[in-house]
Amino acid sequence: MQTTGVHHIAIICSDYARSKRFYVDVLGFTVIREVYREARQSYKLDLQVGNHTQIELFSFPKPPQRVQYPEACGLRHLAFVVPNLDEAIADLTAKGIEVEPIRVDEFTNKRFTFFQDPDNLPLELYEL
User: For 68-90, what is each residue's pLDDT tens digit?
Assistant: First the structure.
């Protein structure tokens, strides 16, 4: 099998309108399409992240809560590449988003930080 990249990442949110505002207005992802699926009572929002990756944002009636800390099996976090970590952090904090202190990857010496989406999904900014 040969893969050439990640096509999309699917996220189920507890409050669709709040998460849509966060991913579109705060993070600046572009809406590709938005549909309401009557049979599932669910919205599906396709968002463009960079040139190659998409996020699918779903709403479902009464989804179970995400397993919280400490770290558990499953998806740990999503990491987004940023060209300038300081500018990205300044942008997030200006929008009222709390960001953890900057860390340095011990293997690559690259800087990164974490913050959370409205459902406490850990998100990382990684400076290249």
Answer: 766 677 778 999 999 999 999 99
